[in-house]
Amino acid sequence: MNAAAIALPLCLRLAVCAALALTLAGCAAPGVTSLQQHWPPALPQTAKMGGVPFFPQDDYQCGPAALAMAAAAAGARATPEQLASQVYLPARQGSLQLEMLAAGRRLGLVTHRIRPDLEALLQEVAAGNPVIVLQNLSFQFAPVWHYAVAIGFDRASNTIVLHSGRTENMEMSLHVFERTWERSGRWAMLAMPPDRLPAGADGSGYAVSIAALERSSPEAARKAYAAALRRWPDDPVLQLGAGNTAYAQRDYEAAVRAYRTLVTTHPGIADGWNNLAQALLDQGRRREAMAAIGNAVALGGPRLSSYRQLQQEIQARQ
Hints:
The protein contains 13 helices and nine strands. With 318 residues, it is of the alpha+beta class. The strands form two sheets. Strands 1, 4, 5, 6, 7, 8 and 9 form a seven-stranded antiparallel β-sheet that branches. A two-stranded antiparallel ribbon has the order 2-3. It is elongated.
């Protein structure tokens, strides 16, 4: 799985956190048989979520229903009918993954793709996070695409529990599920409230998902950065994102604090010095801004011309 950098132009001279985001790479883990033989000690033998509402899925509209279920569990108000216009494509008789991710963000949720392996999926379910999964219920040459929501599993019976189609709490063999999920490239996503974190994410990878939320809901993104920093306090992408969301809301003092934390823990990141200089300048702290942008220019990098432009502006201020 590759997570592409997301461009978020907060300010022409303010470097965005996606510029620091690392590429996430994952490969498919061994299947059900191997998982059963080497069950992770931290993974419970059984799990079942309560509080995940069920919306029966009309023909071809499983996407809106699956997203509405996960969103409602996360505290967002949405019905399949409300989401249909955002994710359902009549010409394709279905919903594309990008539309599913974007619609969740419009609800103020952090939509996040999980690693494409069964252990990662069960780990999220065990943590109480409903997982939207994409399956192909037919053959590759004549696919029948279907979204469902994973809400439980049981090792002894070798089953997974899904809200699927018109069936609530449907039990499916993990072997059958794995085959149908494999045909979709093991695509799965979470729709997380901003103050809650996935069980299996890493800091920089989750920062990419939060950054995508900034355009539609900057306040929710700011909360999500704060929550993520409590788990990964030294992650530079999260630190930069926290500063950027504070800056976007004109909370320059909070932005300065975030950027100072970034350049203290990661002094070699030129973007951090640049953004600190911009926030200081907007507070009228010209001398401090000049020192900060001097560090950015000295470090250089692909955005050196932008750093120099800001340096010239600071020099011109009297």
